[in-house]
Amino acid sequence: MGQAKAAKPVKVICAVLAGREEWLERTADLLEQALGATDLTSGTWPFDSTDYYEGEMGPGLLRRIYSFRELAGPENIVEIKHTTNRLERQLAAQVSCGPQRPVNLDPGYVSESKLVLATTKDYSHRIYVRAGIYAEATLRWRGGAFEPWEWTYPDYCSERYREFFARVRALYVDQCRELALR
Fold first, then answer.
1. Cα–Cα distance, 93 to 44 (Å, whole number)
2. Where are the domains of the chain?
3. Over residues 46-75, mean pLDDT
4. Which fold has domain 10-178?
5. Using CA atoms, how far apart are residues 97 and 151, in angstroms rounded to an integer?
6. Rounded to two decimals, what is the model's pTM?
7. Which one of 44, 93, 156, 160 counts the least CB within 10 Å of its CB?
């Protein structure tokens, strides 16, 4: 019989979607206040794989992803998602001349074997965690690289996203080695 044990800590990430560079910058500051210092930031990429958010956020959306220095328990993803939802509302209240939703925050975490994203939306491949939050294994680590699943969002399937998350994973593996977490 298997023995229950505490989960290994994970590396928190947050993908930010916004219509303006200035909103990305403002969001970065708020995320660091809420989640701690970042240790890796992606480039600013056009969000052009779908128009899903255009009605709510406007055209010409930009994506930037942050990785946070401090490791956390994977169970903390619930509080992290509630925090990012609060930050979205806070930013919407501060932006007077923009769309109803100026930013979209998608937190998650990287472990040795996967990238997990948190969401408030249920679907067949998502697992309910608690307090209205679901988790989705969005990418899996296999053969020395991240691979998408059939349900992975098109942008996360792209080489640039998968390469960025591989860099985050390398930082994570180094941190685990330093902390003797293997």
1. 24
2. 10-178
3. 94
4. Alpha-Beta Plaits (3.30.70)
5. 35
6. 0.95
7. 93
